[in-house]
């Protein structure tokens, strides 16, 4: 009887290792056959019925496959969230510094103009427009270039048409 169990478990081990069909005879003369198909061992018993036995390796493989699928889906969701919030403009490049410098000059120009320092406000706003035109050229953004060029031209025309403002400032 111990010998039958030994042969049975040895056969099970061989099936796992070889992943093929093995046919053996027990010491009682009973014929048993086992076939490995994917992750299930099909065993034909003495009564002629087929029994499916899922191997431990097969169960682990199925668990790992489902976990891999879940993690891939979670990674895809996280990647989508990251893509939604990541900045679209590059950081640390020359155009990044020009963009922020132009933004500061623009805000400074607005505050200086509202503080009745018209000449300094207009100069800051004019140089800000030049900076934004440069950034628009680097990014190939026509709307940014056109908008900045129109605003810069309007400020330059005002400065050219009113030279008296500059004469008051130079005194």
Structure, explained:
Helices cover 69% and strands 12% of the residues. The protein has 171 residues and is of the alpha+beta class. Strands 1-2-3-4 form a 4-stranded antiparallel beta sheet. It is rod-shaped and about 115 Å long. It starts with a helix and ends with a helix.
Which keywords apply here?
171 residues, 2 domains, alpha+beta, single chain, 12% strand, 6 helices, rod-shaped
Largest sheet: 4 strands, antiparallel
Uncertain parts: 19-27, 31-39
Please count the helical segments: 6
Shape label: rod-shaped
N-to-C CA distance: 118 Å
Question: Topology, pairings included?
Answer:
Elements: H1 2-18, E1 22-25, E2 31-37, E3 40-44, E4 50-54, H2 56-85, H3 94-114, H4 118-139, H5 142-161, H6 163-170
Helix pairs in contact: 3-4, 4-5
Summarize the model shown.
This protein has helices at residues 2-18, 56-85, 94-114, 118-139, 142-161, 163-170, and strands at 22-25, 31-37, 40-44, 50-54.
